[in-house]
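INFO  loader      accepted 1 record
INFO  loader      residues=232
INFO  predictor   begin
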Amino acid sequence: MRGAALILAALLASGPAAAGIVSARYLEPTTRYAHGVLGDAIEYGALEMEMTDGRRVTLTLPESSVFEDIAPRLADVDGDGAPEVITVESSLTRGARLAVYGVDGLIAATPHIGRSNRWLAPLGAADLDGDGKIELAYIDRPHLARILRIWRFDDGALVPLAERGGLTNHRIGEDFISGGIRDCGTGPEIVSADADWRRVMITTYRGGRIESRAAGPFAGPESLADAVACRD
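INFO  predictor   done
INFO  writer      dumping tokens
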């Protein structure tokens, strides 16, 4: 599975195998996917990763896909002490999926949503239930289905764990994604809005159970930013 979705476009210098990723960004802006959910028609065709040894590695998607995202996210998904890159990758015909990349290409991904112009908005990655493995959370179709989905990275794959409807973290045209994962001293919690954008919602996944509670009224994006920063 590794590297199946990408073509290695450039490896500017050789270096030790132990080199890790220190930053990542999207390159090659493109208008080949006419969705515009993030406020314009521009998506990205490539992912560049900067390594600890100074190398820059660029991975380029085929013409049938784009990175439909704001910015790549770094997180140690596999627990080896070095970060991987979490992205939103959209097929022109099958919609979005959450995809985890390393320097050699694709590591793991969720299934595509299933049709064009269907998107997901990431919330983050953390060990939500304290079992030592990393969970990844996102809102599936935040403007339509409004379903929180939680997946675990386990043995090289993303495994579905839990879902809860009635939650969202993005409105059509916004060039940012709200909410995220926080830890205010009692363990990781997922911050989002309810489906009607009336309340700030806090969701936990522990002991195999997903539970949500209201944490106050939604009064604009700063409401979710405050909650993520434990200022609610």
